[in-house]
Amino acid sequence: xxxxxxxxxxxxxxxxxxxxxxxxxxxxxxxxxxxxxxxxxxxxxxxxxxxxxxxxxxxxxxxxxxxxxxxxxxxxxxxxxxxxxxxxxxxxxxxxxxxxxx
Length: 102
Known about the structure:
This protein has 6 helices and no strands. The chain has helices spanning 13-16, 20-23, 27-40, 44-55, 60-65, 68-88.
């Protein structure tokens, strides 16, 4: 049996196209990655501030958009929340608080 090579086969669509899953990242994964990187770059104080704002139902953008008087009022609420957490904190995990008086 003789196979003729004079007739060229049409190009396969698999040879010219990359799978969509490998060529592009989903938009959600990229935004999640950006959010993580922004969080990772925050100082511990900035993270605490963001967490307190979240407890109050606010985002950092909403906080920045407020007038200075409203920002000051929310900062005072955050200070009070921190004071409450410190006063009510009875966390006795190793390394959190060290008693060196003994």
